[in-house]
Amino acid sequence: MNENPWHVLHVIANHEKRVAKQLAVRSLEHYLPLYAESSRWTDRTVLLERPLFTGYVFVRCTSQTRLAFISTPGVISLLGDGKNETVSAVEIARIRYGLASGSLVQPHPYLPVNVGTPVRVLQGAFKGMTGVVMEFRHRCRVILSLAAVQRCFSVEVDLQDIQTIPQPELYPMPMRIPLRVGANHLSM
Q1: Cα–Cα distance list, 117 to 22, 49, 79, 110, 139 (Å)
Q2: In terms of CB atoms within 10 Å, which of 47, 56, 62, 100 comes out highest?
Q3: What's the predicted TM-score (pTM) here?
């Protein structure tokens, strides 16, 4: 198995399959993960194959094949910022295996949630409360506090039921405005 990392092509919206066909015609190695979704039409229900990551196609390219990839019709750019420019072969293999094994794999909005991330609960009995993510298992364990009694408790919630909130500055600096400017110093 080829262990080279995969690069990410950013493509025109709703053109993922067309770009994949063009890459296949050019014999360029690519991967477009598709998941099955049933859609109700007026007269029947159909099973559609949709891109798991809309707007993106994974490719293995070298400096020699780079131009062939980015000159493909429908391609906007080859992503890369120096840090997150590739996807490991192991991650792609896991996605392939998950889709092939019949696992329920569907797109989900990106949640930059890690242990220690402050979050707000969006659903359920604790809706509106804020807390900190403490662990991930099957669900997300969030620590919530009750300030009146200075106690905390944990609750398990689904990821779609939380929203990250910006961390407040730990030590906000008060703004100082000089009132009088002396010859050698500033005074308030």
Answers
A1: 42, 34, 27, 14, 15
A2: 56
A3: 0.63
